[in-house]
């Protein structure tokens, strides 16, 4: 804001003074909107009762008469209704004068938004006349009839409704409860206790209990009754056709939903059938592996029995050539069987297509056990190739322990990904427990599941924007309330309304800020 000095006035430039004037009026409008919030707080909390005022009108007339009194307050509150009804477009309405021609559309939010949009289309920075022209285009308003010398008489103690769209209490119902000061105005008391002096022309004549039906001669009464009956029959026929049409539409919609449900159940049945086939194949493979392990155990036991027999009867072994030859032949057959077993290393080059990791793990464990029992280096190397580790007992054992976690890891990760609205943090809380076998469980997941994981990770890296529901704090570290916590409860264009936790027990609970004045709240 520019401060003028009489000695330096001649040195000022037009652009400087013009900019200062605009900034001053902008500040006035902003403080005026802030005053509206405080006025609403005074009225809703009835704080004026603490000062001894009977109602809100008396408070405005006594305390705010210097700023227009109750009439000006009603104008500001009407502008507030317009701002609230128009939503995010309210940021383009700078003051009460611009909102005044839009007040008559506040009961129809869609038409109100259309009028504001039309005004912005014609002028990026619309004024009062632009908004008035746009409102007239959206909802044309007939010129008010000139009041005749004979004003309509409204009876006392009657329920009336404000019918003039430009009136701040448009659509509200009240009661005439006092003697009118003149013939063309009435004192109306509303449900919230507010009393206003309103013109008879601004009141809804249909809400006044007066006989409005004209009397007709007898020869016309029968014709009028017949026309009414015909009209009622026609209306009943149209209502019946409408009901039939609605029932048909509802039936078609229900049939479509049932068809979709049947299709969904068929797809689910098909998926379950495929899963059952896969499970049966896996069971068959595991049964084959069990049989192979059983044969290996039998061979191992047979070799042990032969070695024990040789140790117990060394004399007979060396003394009997036939026994020695038979033992050699048997050992040769055992070695041939072991060589056939060790040829399972070829599975590491081309693993089975279904349940590959589980099959290879079981075969690797079988070969490890066989290598341990026979002290066979070739079996140990085969187990290392299948399991993907170093050809040592400790490395194979560690790798086998890792692969034992694989079925559980895949099951838990799929359960998290199947949740509606799954987030990256929920996935990461489970996945980090199985980070050592990340490549293994990723190989087990489908393409759709891996794509979903990538999408969740990309979403977590995008910056967040402060909006309704965001938990925020002051961005300026030098603010006294820098560590206090608040929640955004409303958006007003570039600004937001914040409800602070430390103001819950105070009369003022919210305040208005620009987004760059706030930050996302972090616990200390």
Mean pLDDT over all positions: 76
Helix-and-strand structural type: alpha+beta
Write down the overall geometry.
elongated
Unreliable stretches: 6-10, 315-323, 340-345
Number of helices: 17
Largest sheet: 5 strands, antiparallel
Percentage of residues in strands: 5-15%
Q: Into how many domains do the coordinates divide?
A: 5
First-residue to last-residue Cα separation: 39 Å
Strand order of the largest sheet: 8-7-6-5-9
Beta strands, count: 9
> Helical content, roughly?
55-70%
SSE pattern, N- to C-terminal: HHHHHHEEEEHHHHHHHHHHHEEEEE
Model description:
With 524 residues, the chain is an alpha+beta fold. It has helices spanning 14-45, 56-63, 69-86, 96-99, 109-122, 128-138, 218-312, 314-319, 321-342, 346-349, 356-374, 377-387, 393-404, 406-417, 424-431, 438-444, 447-461; strands spanning 159-161, 173-176, 185-190, 195-199, 471-474, 486-492, 495-500, 510-514, 518-520. It has five domains: 9-138, no CATH class; 159-207, SH3 type barrels (Roll), CATH 2.30.30; 238-404, no CATH class; 407-461, no CATH class; 471-520. 57% of the residues lie in helices and 8% in strands. Helix 7 (218-312) packs parallel to helix 11. The strands form two sheets. A five-stranded antiparallel sheet has the order 8-7-6-5-9, with no helix packed on it. The chain has a four-stranded antiparallel sheet with strand order 1-2-3-4, with no helix packed on it.
Secondary-structure blueprint:
Layout: H1 14-45, H2 56-63, H3 69-86, H4 96-99, H5 109-122, H6 128-138, E1 159-161, E2 173-176, E3 185-190, E4 195-199, H7 218-312, H8 314-319, H9 321-342, H10 346-349, H11 356-374, H12 377-387, H13 393-404, H14 406-417, H15 424-431, H16 438-444, H17 447-461, E5 471-474, E6 486-492, E7 495-500, E8 510-514, E9 518-520
Antiparallel strand pairs: 1-2, 2-3, 3-4, 5-6, 5-9, 6-7, 7-8
